[in-house]
Amino acid sequence: MTTPVLRRTLTTSAAAAGSAVLLLAAAAGASAHVGVTPDKTDAGSYALLTFGIPHGCDTSPTTKVAITLPPELNDAQPTVNPNWTAEKVTEQFTEPRKLSDGSSITKRTSQIVYTAKTPLSPELRDALVLSVHLPDSAGATLHFPTLQTCESGQTDWSQVAADGQDPHDLKAPAPSITLTAAATGDAHGAGAAHVTGQAAAVTDTGAGARSWTGLAAGVGGLVLGGAALLRTRGGRRAPAGDAATGNQ
After folding, report:
1. What is the average per-residue pLDDT within 164-188?
2. What residue ranges in 9-152 does DSSP mark as E strands?
3. Domain of 41?
């Protein structure tokens, strides 16, 4: 007969295992697209944007990734990645563009092109990090059309959802972020804090895989613990039965 403690243990194990399966499936689906994860979205602040690069051309290795900056951005600083070379592509304005500090510019960085030193296997993923100064436009959504070139074929991650359309319905959505209201205090942040944030973003590129591994190990531990408890309970019932029949 199953005891209340054993029932609770087995129920907890089953629930955790089910949750892990759903979370792992969701993570696998999300990793199929080129996405962007900002370390902050405060309007007017400096942010680190981490672009996750999964397979994009079926089984063909990735050789180049071109990230187009939205017109609201004037520049982006690529973080060094030993697997890629990075190049800035600029565009010239027909007329100078005035900045908020009163100065003006005649050109801007329109695209960052990464070229793989060794083609990225479709079985692996990588992360490319850009440092940008976000515009002071809370509520605005910035899109970063990204062209992923492979040894065979290309995937153009540039689709933008129309009004009322669910972005999840798009086959090749452009990576995007939505700006939030500026935080109180200094929105730009100190230089030392900026460097620390950059290091954290680069170091965290493999944290997702480690967290899923830890989750799977935890679920396995719960299941094994439930099985051990079941064996223990089963082993303790025999002496109780002997006592009931007078055999002590």
Report:
1. 85
2. 35-38, 46-53, 62-68, 77-78, 84-98, 104-120, 126-133, 141-143, 146-150
3. 35-210
